[in-house]
Structure formats: C-alpha cells, structure tokens
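PROTEIN DESIGN WORKSHEET
SECTION A - STRUCTURE
LENGTH: 143
TOKENS:
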C-alpha cells in the first residue's frame, strides 16, 4: 500500500518546485484513487469536485510535473490511456482486460528489484514499467 506522505515530502520530491494548490489537489486525487490507477480524465473528474475551477489542461500539466519530479509514476498499458500511480516502490502492474482494473504487483524480494529478472549482470534498475495483462479473479470466474 502507498504510504501517506506529507506536503513537505511532496515538496521535497518536487525539488524546489512550488507545491501549488492545483498540484496539491492533483497529487491528493492520485493518492485517493491509487487503487484504480486513475487516468488523467478520472483525475480531472475528481479534482473538479474539490476545485471546481481547475481545467483539464491544468490537470495534465500537474500530472506531468508530478511525474517528472518523481512524485508519481505514469503507467502505460496495452492500448489504454496512461494511468497514474503514487506507489513509488518498485512494482509491476497487472491489468484486467475485461474490467480494466489495475493491480499493483509487488516484488517478493523488496530489497532488490533486479532479482526476478535476468538482467545483464551488474545492472541497476532505476525505474520499472512492467505491465501484465490478463483476467482478474472476478472476471475469470464470471462467464
Ligand atoms: Zn477484471
Ligand atoms: Zn501502481
């Protein structure tokens, strides 16, 4: 589970970038919807409930800034709109082709993200973007 991080920690991640009200709202929405890994448009829909004046362009901008700063990660899935994830632990994503749910897949050995993969020896993973596609348990059971 993604841990709740404080404004100060986010500000630190933003590396001197100002934590504007809009960025804060966008960041909080990504946290809030972490389980579903929201697309930009679902972030927008929720952000607008909190801050009615926010525009879709602003949401896109904030998502980009937060991604560049490493506060959230952008998840690209098979022919799908990008999703956003606030879980900064190295992990993969499992994507259900039927209900579009996205699950965080944690590594068994959290100490070393390179462990399960046959990387060239001596490599170090700095970022992971691994997506698996299939059927979640609910969809597998429903005919
Ligand atoms: Zn499913
Ligand atoms: Zn994730």
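SECTION B - SEQUENCE
RESIDUE ASSIGNMENT:
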């Amino acid at each position: 589970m993604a841990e709740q991080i404080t404004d100060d920690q986010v500000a630190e991640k933003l590396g001197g970038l100002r934590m504007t009200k809009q960025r804060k709202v966008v960041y909080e929405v990504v946290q809030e919807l972490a389980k579903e890994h929201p697309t930009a448009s679902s972030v927008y829909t929720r952000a607008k409930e909190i801050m009615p004046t926010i525009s879709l362009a602003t949401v896109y901008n904030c998502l980009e800034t937060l991604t560049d700063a490493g506060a959230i990660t952008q998840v690209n899935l098979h022919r799908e709109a990008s999703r956003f994830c606030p879980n900064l632990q190295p992990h993969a994503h499992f994507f259900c082709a039927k209900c579009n749910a996205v699950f965080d897949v944690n590594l068994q050995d959290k100490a070393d993200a390179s462990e399960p993969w046959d990387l060239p020896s001596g490599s170090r993973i700095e970022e992971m973007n691994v997506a698996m596609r299939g059927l979640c348990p609910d969809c597998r059971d429903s005919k």
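SECTION C - NOTES
The mean pLDDT is 85.
Residues 7-75 form a domain with the Arc Repressor Mutant, subunit A fold (CATH 1.10.10).
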